Each structure stands twice: as structure tokens, then as C-alpha cells.
Amino acid sequence: MLFIQKSAISRERKAELLAFGRTAGLRFKSIELLNLALTHRSFTNEDTAHSPNNEKLEFLGDSVLGMIVATYLYGLLSDKAEGDLARIKSYVVSEDSLSLASHELGIQDHLLIGKGEELSGGREKKAILADALEALIGAYYLDSGYEAATRFVLRLVEPEILKVLQNRHRKDYKTILQEYVQKYHKSYPKYLLVKKTGPDHDRTFWISCLVGTTEYGPTQGKNKKEAEQSAARIAYDSIVEAGGLEAARLLQIENQ
């Protein structure tokens, strides 16, 4: 039996959470679970009562999400190889995809975050939004069971899976480039942080990609992952233009 400690939730907060649940198509039995799923650690760090945050629910939700997506892909694409299923799954559960789905649900408007995180634009940070969605999935699984969680998750991910199958998704150039470099250069691409610009709450990262002795970039991004993807794309495009047919083949596999 799952024990959920009831915490004091104001009448205003309860009304806000109930309204969010209706908009998101979720009917929580435990409003405390929903509130916990939307409580970032930065909020509890500033709370002298040391209230719990959503990190454990995020841990659980990550596994539940992975299981649901893997099961769905296994049944939907029975003719595909394991590697193809893994590529599709990695896109669907990526930080980019989850943060976008989180934003579309309006999670950013209902997060409890600390003042410092608020001032640094935390409500729009991809990592925070993606983590909050995983926490929400974990909370809904505990609250309403696997079948209800499955319906919710598939409502979010089916359009993203369709994008991949129709080749309308954002390509994972880091993975494509790494597979090529591993196979033909027996090494790995290296990503070099060239510089950081801007204040702490609004950083821009400049990163180059090193393949062998050739450096590509630098390119910029609002976080390191974004900048690395951009640098990997420049490296990949340059290799294909120089006659890297195998690199082009790997992209075709990614698109299938």
C-alpha cells in the first residue's frame, strides 16, 4: 500500500491544480501527489520546513515512460530491428521532446520553483520542464495505475512517433556522427567548449566538434547540449560534402 503524506495545500493552490488537471485531461485522486509532481527542488531548498520535491517521482516517471513507449513501439513496429526502435524511442523521450510536451500542457505555469530559479528563467528551462513531465507521469501512475498512465503517455508521444516515421523530426546528429566516427576512425568526436558569454541566468555556449584533427565550428547554443548538436551537424554536413557516403547512409537509417 502506498502511503502519501498529506501536506497543507491552500485553497487557491488546490483550485489551480484541479484546473490544471482538467485542462491536461488528468483526474487525480490525490491532489497531494499532483502538487508534489509540480514541486521543483529549488522551491523546497528555500523552504525551512524541508518539504519533499518531485525528484523521486521523476525517477519513477522516467521508467514508466520508457516502459510504455518501448511496449508501444514493439507492437507497432514489429518489422523493425532493435536499433531502429531504440532510435525512435531515444527521440520520443529526449529532453527536447518532453520539454515541448510539458510546455504544451502548461506545466510551466503551475510549477513551484524557488525565487532564484524564477529569476533565472527556470520556468522555461528544458531540463526543468522535461523533469516535471516525468514526475507528473510517475505521480499519475501511482495515483491511477498503469493503464491510465499509458493512455496519458500515448496521447503525448503518438504524434512525436508519427513525426519520426514521416521523417519530420529533429535529427540526432550527435548520435549519427558518433556512429560514423566510431566505425571509420575508431575514435569518438570530441566537443570543445570555446567560450561562454552572457550573465549566469542567460548564458550562451560556443562549442566546436573535433573529428580526428579537424575542428568544426564553433557554434552557439543556450546550453551545452544544444551547442553540441549544432556543432555535430556542421561536422556531419562537412563530412558528407567531402564524400562521406557512409555518413549519409547512417542519416538515411535514422530517417527510416
Structure description:
With 256 residues, this protein is mainly α. It folds into 2 domains: 11-165, Ribonuclease iii, N-terminal Endonuclease Domain, Chain A (Orthogonal Bundle), CATH 1.10.1520.10; 173-255, 2-Layer Sandwich (Double Stranded RNA Binding Domain), CATH 3.30.160. It contains 12 helices and 3 strands, in the order ααααααααααβββαα. The chain has helices spanning 11-24, 31-37, 41-45, 55-76, 82-92, 95-105, 115-119, 126-144, 146-165, 173-185, 224-241, 245-255, and strands at residues 190-197, 204-211, 214-221. Strands 1-2-3 form a 3-stranded antiparallel sheet, with helices on one face. β2 (204-211) and β3 (214-221) form a beta hairpin. α5 packs across α9 and α10 (173-185) packs across α11 (224-241). The chain is flat. It starts with 10 loop residues before the first helix and ends with a helix.
Please give the share of residues in helix: 55-70%
Question: Main sheet?
Answer: 3 strands, antiparallel
Q: Strands of the largest sheet, in order across it?
A: 1-2-3
Secondary-structure class: mainly alpha
CATH architecture type of the largest domain: Orthogonal Bundle
At the fourth CATH level, what is the homologous superfamily of the largest domain? Ribonuclease III domain
